[in-house]
Amino acid sequence: MDNTRLTLKQRFKFTGGPPVSGPVELTRNRVFILPTQRGLGMAFTILLLLLIAFIYSNNLVYLLGFLLASIFFVTILHTFKALAGLVVQAGFVQPVFAGESAAFPLTVTNPGNQPRPALSATLEGEHFFSLAADQSKTLTLYGLARKRGWQMIGTVTLASCYPLGSFRAWSPLKLDSKVLVYPKPSACSLPFPVGEDQQSSSQQHTDRSGRDDFDGIRSYRLGDPLRQIHWKAYAKGQGLFSRQYASNAGGTELWLDYRNTPGADVEERLSQLCRWVIDAENAGLRYGLQVPGRKIAPDGGMRHYATCLETLALF
């Protein structure tokens, strides 16, 4: 377990120090406490009561002032113990597309025999929870995936104002947990590209017979070329179908090549390739991916799909 001591600058800037891996125990070096606005008001009230008691020599006001002061100082201990000793560990994060919210699982364990009520965990939003004695709870914190590639979880802050809200104890944690962010799929669904190998194969077949052999029709698949759509059937209200020819009915392999992808810059090209990978997988096609420095042979299935998206994310 990591018990690294945080500097004064780190604790007040809520940075949590350098990223740490594995379970993190919230020791006294990691839990910090300050009075809240309510606590400052309570301290001011105590001082005012003691001043009044001194001026008027009133023992009852002294009694009230010291009673409130004892509650004030005992509350510090209870607020600190609400966090101290908890063990925090981050879980595996599923990859997401840029612009989506990543779900970061966070397991918080209470190894003690005392319940821990009124806790909160904050990433980009605040999540409230409580822990019974010897209980573990897995929270799901959400953070926006801003750009492709690896993205760290950021600083998670565990806090508590238990029991009276007079003090706030907090512990900023920077965990060694990250999410793989795929490129954002293009909103424009362009037809699949026709590579040089596909063009030459189609041309050879056409040269032999003078035309492609019609092989029937099938339901339209996302990404089918517009020239293959059976417009007459669509005009009659029979649905959307695509013509099937002998030249492309035999399980043609689709190549998605970065060099032949339209786009004004790298991100637009990767976005379009991401869209084609999704469409090809949904259509049940065998597809390959080629980017500068890497070539993935045509295949299908979720493992191949994840490999292609990971290649685009880390390009």
Fold and architecture overview:
The chain is of the alpha+beta class. It has two domains: 8-182, Immunoglobulins (Immunoglobulin-like, Sandwich); 196-313, no CATH class. It is built from seven helices and 17 strands. The strands form five sheets. The protein has a five-stranded antiparallel β-sheet. The chain has a four-stranded antiparallel β-sheet with strand order 1-3-5-8, with no helix packed on it. It has a three-stranded mixed β-sheet with strand order 4-12-9. A hairpin with a 2-residue loop joins strand 16 (287-291) and strand 17 (294-299). Helix 2 packs antiparallel against helix 3 (59-83) and helix 6 (266-282) runs antiparallel to helix 7 (302-313). The protein starts with 7 loop residues before the first helix and ends with a helix.
* CATH class descriptor name of the largest domain: Mainly Beta
Task: Output the CATH homologous superfamily of the largest domain.
Answer: Immunoglobulins
Overall number of strands: 17
Distance between the termini: 35 Å
Residue share in β-strands: 25-35%
Q: Mean of residue pLDDT?
A: 84
* Structure annotation, total helices: 7
Describe the largest sheet: 5 strands, antiparallel
Q: Return the structural class.
A: alpha+beta
CATH topology-level fold name of the largest domain: Immunoglobulin-like
